[in-house]
């Protein structure tokens, strides 16, 4: 498929994909990789040692084990939110692009409004009322990140519909379903994939922000929650950098990896080269 | 709060119905939705609407007088009537009482908002300038080591959660090196010029973090914008006229990259503001971030609602300003 | 008298992921003072790369060998700073796409003033009344009476003007710099039929007073604006000669095909004449045209054709004419 060709030829995207896959793998194998049970209590505020490579937190839990297990939470929230947001966005984009008219105007108006509302404050407010809970978070994030995907899908549908050859096919009786299968989906897929990757990154960041502020799920400690506790329970003031630097680093590396992948998927070409060769 | 912008800025002005009237309508609709959301959330979310409205402290402080409080706030009235009361209250400045700060919500917000704006507004401008220069340079030397170096460096900073970056900087420069204060906006006691200098000294690190945060986005925007502009015929023409590289870069390339940059800056105002919140928490900067953080801890809902509202309104304003500025920068849209 | 422009054996290559594109393969031509030379060929023949290379604006392409002499001076390997002095002041370009060649953010006046500053080496601002006289004068040389609408024109933005008007502005911009050589890239292509006549008239006005290089696939434009014409194919000049001679009695098989096709599709965008577009990466050996040539001989696929000088000042690069040449 053309898509894998793109990614394969692009070393940068590949590197990103490998890095992210490593994190996913670590998350999947967390119970095996974590040296201790992340919920077990040892002596609190222990410095890094061979027994506890990253020391222990304020209630004595092994930080490294928390870090590895936290990957599961952070990654799944990101992936599920991303999937939800992108699915919804694709649906809205397809609807708006195919149906046009009033429905399109309405949907696009909605998209614009959602886009202009500042995401974090809204999510904070809703989370505060809903209370902690991973699925709450996934739902809210999914509802916040769909607009840009919707926009992209819609414009793709519109441009495909307006292409001359498609107009001709329509004149011969080709219906929306055919149009969607043969033309829209193949063209839209790389864009949607790129959007998905970026949305996962954005969702991970926002989950981390929410958790940092104390709105995360204390029963499912994500990297963001680790940062929250490190900050709120004296880890920062007491310069226990092995507590708060690793979770942030992990988040950063995941975002970095995902961004690399998205760069690879987006098509690039040198306009000057194209110009000179066209003539 | 990483806005899921891809590296290409959203084309805000592609809408066929982008007349002034329809855009004004969009803003009003957004305002209406935000205000209504603010109204509906405490009443629809789980929990007693009364608690959702006055906050935990307020709820418990009322003691046995809960029913009086309920009717005082009009919670037993039909929704449309409540909505009317709510709007009147908003417009008259009665946004409730904060048990956390023991003052009217409006005062608490005003007190904290100015610190946030003091941090965010300079950051935005500095970030835009920095990104314009670096992004333009990277695009100009596309593919070279300069470009790769700048882009990679940008990506690294972009990927880090900015509040983590804040922690890192604070740790290195304040805790370890002692060059900067450990937090807050002032160390207290000074007036006039020494006061300003003191604030400036406290402001430097958070400013750097927020500027870096925004600049990394702007860099991508500018670079992509400039790369596509470089492929335009009028740039070739400018070169063919024998203009110097500086002339071509500034008068022709960057001038045309200006409009998208300003637009994106305004659109991302919400993102920057949101980002600033967390940075403020790390630095104990007395802005909206600290307000929200404390309010969450104390479950002071009226404070949180008002914070959301004011931030959303600021963002709408920023978008509106961008809409007004764009035609001034791009003659084609006049 | 030395020709104003001499190009000898110019080779320009582009490195692409698919291979090296040889856009120009040994192009040689001469333009005398006051003469107007047309470069005629279809899309992809290398004519754009040719004139861009004269200005060192062919990036990311590279000039791998050959020589360009401007009034006897070798400008092939000048550094960027020296080249900036050549561009505009010595060699000016009138670009093809009038819709996109003007900066949308500046008024006509600002862009004309910029050209004026190039001529005056930075002094003068282009905003004085004497500058307006100059603008009007230059438009006049194109046969356009600008005075009645000058004020409005100068304050307009490019998108507010018609295509034909923008074309005039571009030509005026080039003329303001008082170049020694004017390069016109497809002067009629980006214009509507109705307006094409105006552009041609403008070029005809300039003919004789200015040394010009007109790059086009449009026979009418070449016939109207040029004294001599060079036909280009596969990065090479295949035939050169006075317009009347080449256009009415083409010698090279490719020229014949090209002109016949043009007669058929008058003024329309030219479809590729050869059965397959020429692959500039994997070049055929010998004559580049031989795979598509109806008169190809065995030698054509083996040996590159020599330049054969014929009567009437015509030069053809074709094996067919080896015997008849001097």
The N- and C-terminal alpha carbons of chain A lie at a distance of 31 Å
Number of strands of chain A: 0
Structural classification of chain C: alpha/beta
Question: What would you call the shape of chain C?
Answer: globular
As residue ranges, the low-confidence spans of chain A are 267-279
Give the helix level of chain A as a range of percent. over 70%
The percent range for helix content of chain C is: 25-40%
Shape of chain A: elongated
Largest sheet of chain C: 8 strands, mixed
User: Major β-sheet of chain A, in short?
Assistant: none
Order of helices and strands of chain C: EEEHEEHEHHHHEHEHEEHHEE
Oligomer: heterotrimer
Strand order of the largest sheet of chain C: 6-7-8-3-9-10-12-11
Strand content of chain A: under 5%
Radius of gyration of chain A: 22 Å
How many helices of chain C does DSSP assign? 10
Low-confidence spans of chain C = none
In terms of DSSP E residues, the strand content of chain C is 15-25%
- Discrete helix count of chain A: 13
Number of DSSP strand runs of chain C = 12
Summarize the structure.
The complex is a heterotrimer of chains A (279), B (334) and C (326). By secondary structure, chain A is mainly alpha-helical.
Characterise this structure:
The complex is a heterotrimer of chains A (279), B (334) and C (326). Chain A has 13 helices and no strands. By secondary structure, chain A is mostly helical. Chain B has 334 residues and is mainly α. Chain B has 13 helices and 2 strands. Chain B has helices spanning 20-44, 49-61, 66-72, 79-92, 105-140, 145-159, 162-176, 192-230, 233-240, 245-267, 269-283, 288-298, 301-329; strands spanning 97-98, 103-104. In chain B, helix 10 runs antiparallel to helix 13 (301-329) and helix 11 packs across helix 12. The two termini of chain B are 33 Å apart. The model of chain B is unreliable at 1-17 (pLDDT under 50). By secondary structure, chain C is an alpha/beta fold. In chain C, helix 3 (108-119) runs parallel beside helix 6 and helix 6 (163-176) runs parallel beside helix 7.
């Amino acid at each position: 498929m053309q898509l894998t060709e793109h990614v394969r030829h692009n070393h940068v995207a590949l590197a990103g994909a490998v890095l992210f896959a490593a994190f996913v793998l670590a998350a999947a194998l967390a119970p095996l990789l974590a040296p201790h049970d992340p919920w077990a209590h040892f002596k609190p505020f222990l410095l890094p040692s061979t027994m506890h490579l990253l020391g222990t937190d304020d209630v004595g839990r092994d930080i490294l084990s928390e870090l590895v297990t936290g990957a599961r939470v952070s990654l799944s929230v990101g992936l599920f939110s991303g999937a939800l947001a992108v699915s919804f966005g694709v649906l809205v984009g397809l609807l708006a692009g195919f149906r046009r008219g009033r429905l399109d105007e309405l949907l696009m108006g909605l998209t614009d409004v959602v886009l202009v509302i500042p995401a974090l404050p809204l999510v904070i407010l809703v989370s505060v009322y809903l209370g902690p809970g991973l699925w709450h978070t996934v739902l809210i994030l999914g509802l916040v990140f769909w607009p840009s995907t919707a926009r992209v899908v819609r414009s793709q549908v519109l441009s495909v519909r307006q292409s001359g050859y498609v107009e001709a096919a329509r004149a011969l009786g080709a219906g929306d379903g055919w149009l969607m299968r043969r033309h829209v989906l193949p063209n839209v897929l790389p864009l949607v994939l790129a959007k998905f990757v970026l949305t996962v990154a954005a969702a991970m960041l926002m989950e981390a922000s929410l958790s940092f502020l104390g709105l995360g799920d204390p029963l499912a400690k994500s990297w963001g929650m680790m940062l929250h506790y490190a900050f709120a329970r004296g880890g920062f003031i007491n310069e226990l950098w092995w507590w708060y630097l690793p979770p942030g680093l992990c988040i950063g590396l995941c975002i970095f990896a995902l961004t690399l992948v998205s760069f690879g998927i987006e098509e690039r070409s040198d306009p000057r080269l194209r110009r000179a060769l066209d003539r | 709060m990483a806005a899921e912008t891809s590296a290409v800025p959203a084309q805000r002005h592609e809408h066929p119905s982008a007349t002034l009237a329809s855009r004004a309508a969009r803003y009003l609709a957004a305002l209406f939705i935000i205000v209504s959301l603010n109204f509906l959330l405490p009443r629809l979310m789980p929990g007693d609407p009364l608690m959702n409205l006055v906050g935990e402290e307020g709820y418990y402080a009322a003691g046995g007088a809960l029913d009086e409080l309920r009717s005082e706030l009009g919670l037993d009235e039909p929704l449309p009537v409540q909505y009317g009361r709510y709007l009147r209250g908003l417009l008259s400045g009665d946004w409730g009482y904060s048990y956390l700060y023991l003052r009217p919500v409006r005062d608490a917000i005003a007190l904290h908002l100015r610190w946030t704006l003091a941090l965010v507004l300079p950051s935005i401008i500095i970030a835009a300038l920095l990104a314009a220069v670096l992004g333009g340079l990277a695009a100009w030397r596309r593919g070279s080591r300069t470009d790769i170096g700048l882009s990679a460096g940008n990506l690294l900073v972009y990927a880090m959660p900015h509040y983590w970056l804040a922690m890192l900087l604070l740790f290195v420069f304040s805790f370890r090196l002692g060059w900067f204060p450990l937090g807050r906006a002032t160390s207290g006691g000074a007036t006039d010029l020494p006061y300003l200098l003191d604030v400036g000294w406290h402001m430097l690190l958070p400013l750097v973090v927020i500027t870096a945060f925004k600049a990394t986005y702007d860099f991508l925007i500018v670079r992509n914008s400039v790369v596509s502009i470089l492929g335009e015929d009028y740039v070739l023409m400018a070169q063919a006229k024998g203009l110097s590289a500086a002339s071509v870069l500034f008068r022709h390339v960057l001038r045309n990259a200006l409009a998208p940059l300003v637009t994106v800056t305004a659109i991302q105002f919400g993102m920057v503001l949101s980002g600033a919140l967390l940075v403020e928490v790390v630095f104990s900067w007395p802005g909206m971030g600290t307000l929200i953080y404390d309010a969450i801890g104390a479950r002071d809902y009226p404070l949180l609602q008002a914070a959301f509202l004011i931030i959303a309104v600021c963002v709408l304003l920023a978008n509106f300003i961008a809409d007004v500025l764009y035609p001034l920068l791009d003659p084609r849209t006049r | 008298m030395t020709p104003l422009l001499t190009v000898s054996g110019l080779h320009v290559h582009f490195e692409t992921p698919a291979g090296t594109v040889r856009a120009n393969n040994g192009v040689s031509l001469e333009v005398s003072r006051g003469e107007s030379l047309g470069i005629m060929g279809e899309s992809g023949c290398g004519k754009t790369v040719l004139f861009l290379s004269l200005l060192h604006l062919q990036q990311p392409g590279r000039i791998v060998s050959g020589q360009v002499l401007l009034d006897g001076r070798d400008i092939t390997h000048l550094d960027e700073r020296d080249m900036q002095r050549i561009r505009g002041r010595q060699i000016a370009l009138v670009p093809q796409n009038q819709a996109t060649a003007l900066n949308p953010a500046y008024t006509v006046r600002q862009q004309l003033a910029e050209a004026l500053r190039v001529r005056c080496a930075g002094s003068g601002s282009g905003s004085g009344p004497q500058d307006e006289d100059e603008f009007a004068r230059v438009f006049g040389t194109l046969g356009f009476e600008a005075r009645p609408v000058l004020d409005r024109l100068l304050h307009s933005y490019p998108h507010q003007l018609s295509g034909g008007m923008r074309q005039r502005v571009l030509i005026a911009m080039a003329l303001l710099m008082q170049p020694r050589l004017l390069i016109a890239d497809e002067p009629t292509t980006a214009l509507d039929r109705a307006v094409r006549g105006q552009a041609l008239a403008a070029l005809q006005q300039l003919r004789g007073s200015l040394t010009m290089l007109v790059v086009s696939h449009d026979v009418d434009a070449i016939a109207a604006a040029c004294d001599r014409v060079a036909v280009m194919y596969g990065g090479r000049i295949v035939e050169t000669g006075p317009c009347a001679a080449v256009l009415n009695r083409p010698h090279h098989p490719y020229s014949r095909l090209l002109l016949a096709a043009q007669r058929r599709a008058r003024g329309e965008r030219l479809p590729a004449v050869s059965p397959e577009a020429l692959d500039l990466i994997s070049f055929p050996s010998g004559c580049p045209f031989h795979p598509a040539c109806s008169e190809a001989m065995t030698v054509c696929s083996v040996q590159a054709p020599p330049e054969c000088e014929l009567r009437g000042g015509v030069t053809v690069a074709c094996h067919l004419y080896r015997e008849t040449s001097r």
